[in-house]
């Protein structure tokens, strides 16, 4: 449908690919209405967060009003002292960051093996790994905790209550989908490229890192974003596997709802503050993300 | 799912022999041994981790489901008496309250999942198609649409709780006070409406992911197809029906399955929305099992229910994959 | 092919080995030891305005303890949303704190797990004897006839908080002493356009606390003498119905409260929207929400007739927090010393003042701070007319099932559906059937 561009774009550099038929008005109107409604649907909660975060607590718990009568930035100051937000934020960044890096690296190795080699058990591997997506979290929450404790007792490696244990848990959560996406992506990188690298004397790993990975950067970024978001929002495992010093944001935000009060305005303010860097990073990466998801999921 | 992957590989002009055939691969004279063991070495980290975090705990979980693991035994659950299939029998005895409640919860979950996945897919696809062409503000809109995906779950859901409040919430303010659509303010967090509240939140959180994937998929539809169709006289609507949607089939196969599994097992959304006692109309099975195990301290029954759920999901996935990839597999072979 | 099989065998062996080692979870460390006499881990529950506020209250006391005994206490304030799960996972794995706070209603349930140190006469002697504690508080420390699983730390009781201004406007001279009076006063308050009584209809625990008191007033019990659930006896049904009828029939609890679970009823009261509130030790909450202490009065929770007392005149559950020692502790002596320290007269005064609770230690109660008119009501209630929730192992299941049943009944009432004896009975029957079979 390149022809629609005419109506919206001033520059006509791509006019060469326009088709003889203009889109009907019905399509244009449907699109306008649909996108407007959708934008409203997405934005209303975001607006509520922003406006509530700027109200005093008494106003927040009052009848909702579109325009706050009394603006204050107080919640943005209080959030840091009600709960150790900075610490939780750092924990979340460390855990999600480490889980993302590990998950991507491991997924790259696995996907390379599946994509480039024929070996026995390949199918068993992919099926097994992917079937772990079906496990209900509740089923293995307690067993996993037991396992970590016993590994800790046997080897002295503290997995429960540590960020390490959480990293390990989260990276395996995102691993299946990541491997799966990357297999598709690597398959779309022409084999001639890495064969040429092999001929030039690179080992298989050299070919992977010098040829395949660079060619698959968009796919890898996509997987990284997905892995990050998986670790970023997880609540159930974090609630029993962390303690005071290692608590992540997803759980820590609940600290604004205490025995006495629910600090709605601070919840909103804190959510916005911690989301800004993530959303910003997201937006910076979204160009890669779109290009990346394409190849992984389609090819 | 392996079928999917190999089928995908098969679609490429340059491909690996994926079903056991010889590899036209790295062929260095000294590397034979290395080449045989290398793939396994590469898979080892993933395999070990999945074993540690998913498979072994699952084996333990299945073992638990055969035990009478109430609070009297959790401290030393090796000593808990074996319950045989007792926990399973209790879970599937649909005449008895426990089984009946589980069945109800299961049906609610199925309905919820189908609706949520359907809506997420529909909204995501529609948005992606609408944003296929460049127009002013497209970049900004695309950025906006990703915001729900990027917010921490707790933050997003608690905001909806706030909006769904009966007395002070935005939803009733708009529906009742401003638009006068309802005779009196409705309850959204308790009673029958809670199902729709849950659905709304789930779709709000979930559709951007569908949007992303579909948007990516659309970019791979060859432009020539559209041009050819246009020459044949197909209008925009027909192009969407005849070219866009069929081209999305492989993307959709993956997307719908993944969304289904995630939504079915989603715990965070209902838990934050309703707390640990969900209203009957929105009693999702994940929270139900959580309640059976952690709140009622009966981990044996909870595990048995989880295993049943797992079996159900395995069956659904198997059937789904068999149905959706039958055509492509025969083409590949 | 051979390598695959080898790998498969290896994987299976490994997983079995790991599974087997996990099966032994917790059994390795049976009782307490004194392996690490210099440190203690303490899980505190969230009692104050926020977790950080709690740390500010507790840390100076822990420093005091360290100075006195040379034992460093590592404090973690665990949010209520996580506390029970953390305790359960700690119990299952044997990996937990040395000392911890538990909600006193959990005592019997946790006692059944065997994870907590029993407080026999010898252990009680080491902290100064059992008779230092108030009887009602001791009544909520574990099943009858067994050694308590924990020691009372903070006590609380329910009282009726009423807004003096609204009462004056409605021409009500004194707080209601019976439910009939409350309903009658409600009519006059509603005539003034105010809400009558706040409640947390979706909060399972709050629901339990109230229906328990109503049950007592109807002479009913939710458990038979030998600990079997008996939710559907006529009196229990009548009690639950009376509570739900406060919304459904008497219209004193506004319908909107049916979905409250996050202390919205306290905000409503603090803002002067609602005239009355049944709450435990609400002073601190109300203060933090900007309601001055002269604006409200505190009275005992109403009874059906007469004055509060024992038996059918009970008007509060024994609320509070207990302090327990985890059996797997590596510092048994230190943990005992810490319990002694926390229940000492001096610390009891400091901590209970900070949290606006009542000390369960008799000597500490003489402090003037606990004898203000407000606290006197709470103290009297605790001493004379409070009863402990059923001390049975299935207590937490009881809270979940019956609390949820009441939540659903409130939802019915809010939706305008009739609440009848039959519908109450049906809900309770369902709750009872979901209790673990004996």
Structure description:
The complex is a heterotrimer of chains A (299), B (333) and C (438). Chain A contains 14 helices and no strands. Chain A has helices at 5-8, 25-53, 57-60, 74-82, 85-116, 122-131, 137-155, 163-187, 191-199, 204-215, 217-233, 236-241, 249-252, 264-298. Chain A is globular, with a radius of gyration of 24 Å. Residues 1-29 and 328-333 of chain B have low confidence and may be disordered. Chain B has 15 helices and no strands. Chain B has a domain at 100-324: MetI-like fold (Orthogonal Bundle). Chain C has a 5-stranded mixed beta sheet with strand order 2-1-3-10-4. In chain C, 58% of the residues are buried. In chain C, 46% of the residues lie in helices and 13% in strands. The N and C termini of chain C lie far apart (52 Å). The chains are: A mainly alpha (299), B mainly alpha (333), C alpha/beta (438). The A-C interface holds A 57-58, 61-62, 81-84, 120-121, 142-143, 145-147, 149-150, 152-154, 160, 239-240, 243-244, 251, 254-262 and C 1, 3-4, 7, 18, 21-22, 24-25, 28, 45-52, 75-77, 79-82, 85-86, 89, 92-95, 262-264, 266-267, 271, 284-285, 288-290.
CATH superfamily of the largest domain in chain A: MetI-like
* CATH topology call of the domain at 100-324 in chain B: MetI-like fold
Q: Distance N terminus to C terminus of chain A?
A: 22 Å
Q: What profile does the largest beta sheet of chain A have?
A: none
Named at the architecture level, the CATH assignment of the largest domain in chain A is Orthogonal Bundle
Helix content of chain B: 55-70%
CATH-level-2 architecture of the domain at 100-324 in chain B: Orthogonal Bundle
Most residues in contact, chain pair and counts: A-B, 126 and 127 residues
Q: Tell me how many strands of chain B there are.
A: 0
Mean of residue pLDDT of chain A? 81
Largest sheet of chain B: none
What's the CATH H-level superfamily name of the domain at 100-324 in chain B? MetI-like
How would you classify the helix and strand content of chain B by structural class? mainly alpha
Order of helices and strands of chain A: HHHHHHHHHHHHHH
Low-confidence stretches of chain A: 1-20
Number of domains of chain A: 2
Note the total helix count of chain A: 14
Hey, roughly how much beta strand do the residues of chain B contain?
under 5%
Helical content class of chain A: over 70%
């Amino acid at each position: 449908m390149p022809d629609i561009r005419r109506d919206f774009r001033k520059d006509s550099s791509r006019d060469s690919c326009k088709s003889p038929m203009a889109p009907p008005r019905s399509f244009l109107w449907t699109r306008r209405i649909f996108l407007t409604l959708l934008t409203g649907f997405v934005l209303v909660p975001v607006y509520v967060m922003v406006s509530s975060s700027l109200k005093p607590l008494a106003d927040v718990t009052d009848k909702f009003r579109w325009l706050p009568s009394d603006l204050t930035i107080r919640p943005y100051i209080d959030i840091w002292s009600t709960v150790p937000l900075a610490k939780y934020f750092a924990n979340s960044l460390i855990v999600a960051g480490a889980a993302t890096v590990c998950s991507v690296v491991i997924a790259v190795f696995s996907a390379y093996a599946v994509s480039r080699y024929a070996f026995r058990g390949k199918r068993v591997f992919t099926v097994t790994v992917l079937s772990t997506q079906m496990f209900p979290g509740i089923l293995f929450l307690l067993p996993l905790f037991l396992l970590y404790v016993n590994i800790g007792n046997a080897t002295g490696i503290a997995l429960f209550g540590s960020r390490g244990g959480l990293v390990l848990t989260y990276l395996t959560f995102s691993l299946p989908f990541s491997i799966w996406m990357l297999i598709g992506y690597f398959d779309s990188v022409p084999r001639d490229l890495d064969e040429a690298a092999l001929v030039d004397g690179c080992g298989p790993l050299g070919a992977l890192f010098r040829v395949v990975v660079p060619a698959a950067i968009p796919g890898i970024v996509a997987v990284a974003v997905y892995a990050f978001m998986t670790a970023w929002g997880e609540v159930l495992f974090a609630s029993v596997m962390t303690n005071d010093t290692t608590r992540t944001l997803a759980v820590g935000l609940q600290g604004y709802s205490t025995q006495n009060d629910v600090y709605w305005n601070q919840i909103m303010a804190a959510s916005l503050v911690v989301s800004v860097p993530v959303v910003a990073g997201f937006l910076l990466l979204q160009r890669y993300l779109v290009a990346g998801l394409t190849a992984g999921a389609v090819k | 799912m392996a079928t999917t992957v190999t089928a995908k590989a098969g679609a490429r002009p340059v491909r690996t022999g994926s079903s056991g055939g010889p590899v036209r691969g790295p062929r260095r004279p000294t590397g034979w041994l290395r080449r045989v063991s290398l793939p396994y070495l590469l898979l080892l980290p993933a395999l070990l981790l999945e074993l540690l975090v998913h498979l072994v705990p699952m084996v333990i979980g299945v073992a638990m489901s055969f035990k009478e693991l109430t609070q009297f035994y959790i401290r030393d659950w090796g000593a808990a008496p074996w319950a045989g299939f007792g926990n399973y029998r209790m879970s599937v005895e649909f005449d008895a309250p426990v089984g009946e409640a589980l069945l109800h919860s299961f049906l609610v979950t199925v309905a919820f999942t189908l609706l949520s996945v359907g809506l997420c897919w529909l909204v995501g696809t529609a948005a992606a198609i609408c944003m296929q062409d460049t127009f002013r503000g497209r970049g900004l809109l695309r950025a906006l649409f990703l915001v729900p995906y990027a917010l921490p779950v707790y933050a997003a859901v608690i905001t909806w709780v706030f909006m769904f409040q009966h007395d002070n919430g935005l939803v009733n303010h708009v529906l009742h006070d401003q638009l006068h659509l309802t005779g009196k303010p409705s309850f959204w967090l308790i009673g029958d409406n809670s199902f729709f509240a849950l659905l709304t939140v789930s779709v709000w959180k979930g559709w951007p992911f569908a949007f992303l994937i579909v948007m990516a998929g659309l970019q791979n539809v060859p432009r020539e197809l559209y041009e050819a169709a246009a020459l044949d006289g197909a209008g925009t609507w027909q192009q969407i029906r005849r070219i866009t949607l069929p081209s999305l089939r492989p993307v959709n196969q993956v997307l719908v399955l993944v969304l289904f599994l995630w939504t079915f097992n989603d715990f965070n959304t209902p838990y934050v929305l309703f707390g640990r006692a969900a209203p009957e109309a929105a009693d999702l099975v994940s929270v139900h099992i959580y309640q059976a195990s952690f709140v009622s301290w009966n981990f044996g029954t909870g595990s048995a229910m989880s295993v049943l759920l797992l079996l159900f999901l395995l069956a659904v996935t198997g059937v789904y994959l068999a149905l959706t990839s039958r055509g492509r597999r025969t083409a590949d072979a | 092919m051979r390598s695959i099989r080898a790998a498969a065998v290896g994987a299976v062996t490994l997983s079995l080995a790991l599974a087997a080692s996990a099966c032994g979870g917790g059994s390795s460390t049976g009782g307490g030891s004194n392996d690490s006499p210099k440190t203690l881990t303490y899980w505190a529950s969230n009692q104050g305005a926020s977790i950080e506020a709690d740390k500010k209250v507790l840390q100076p006391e822990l420093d005091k303890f360290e100075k006195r005994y040379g034992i460093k206490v590592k404090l973690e304030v665990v949010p209520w949303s996580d506390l029970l799960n953390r305790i359960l996972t700690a119990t299952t794995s044997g990996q937990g704190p040395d000392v911890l706070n538990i909600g006193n209603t959990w005592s019997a349930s946790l006692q059944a797990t065997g994870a907590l140190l029993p407080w026999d006469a010898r252990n009680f002697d080491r902290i100064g004897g059992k008779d230092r504690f108030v009887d009602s508080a001791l009544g909520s420390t574990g099943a009858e006839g067994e050694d308590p699983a924990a020691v009372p730390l903070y006590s609380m009781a329910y009282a009726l908080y009423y807004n003096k201004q609204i009462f004056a406007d409605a021409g009500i001279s004194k707080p209601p002493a019976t439910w009939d009076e409350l309903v009658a006063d409600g009519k006059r308050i509603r005539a003034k356009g105010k809400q009558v009584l706040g409640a947390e209809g979706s909060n399972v625990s709050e629901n339990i606390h109230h229906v328990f008191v109503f049950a007592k007033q109807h002479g009913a019990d939710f458990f038979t003498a030998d600990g079997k659930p008996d939710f559907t006896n006529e009196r229990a049904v009548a009690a639950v119905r009376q509570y739900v009828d406060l919304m459904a029939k008497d219209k004193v609890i506004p319908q909107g409260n049916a979905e409250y679970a996050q202390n919205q009823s306290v905000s409503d009261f603090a803002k002067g929207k609602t005239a009355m509130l049944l709450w435990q030790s609400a002073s601190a909450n109300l203060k933090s929400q900007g309601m001055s202490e002269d604006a409200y009065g505190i009275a005992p929770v109403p009874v059906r007739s007469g004055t509060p007392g024992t038996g059918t005149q009970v008007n509060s559950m024994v609320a509070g927090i207990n302090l327990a020692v985890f059996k797997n502790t590596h510092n048994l002596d230190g943990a005992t010393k810490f319990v002694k320290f926390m229940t000492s007269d001096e610390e009891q005064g400091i901590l209970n003042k900070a949290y606006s609770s009542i000390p369960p230690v008799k000597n500490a109660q003489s402090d003037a701070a606990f004898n203000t008119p407000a606290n006197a009501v709470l103290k009297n209630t605790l001493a004379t007319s409070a009863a402990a929730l059923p001390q049975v192992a299935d207590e937490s299941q009881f809270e979940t099932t019956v609390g949820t049943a009441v939540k659903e009944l409130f939802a019915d009432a809010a939706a305008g559906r009739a609440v009848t004896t039959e519908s109450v009975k049906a809900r309770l029957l369902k709750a009872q059937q979901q209790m673990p079979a004996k």
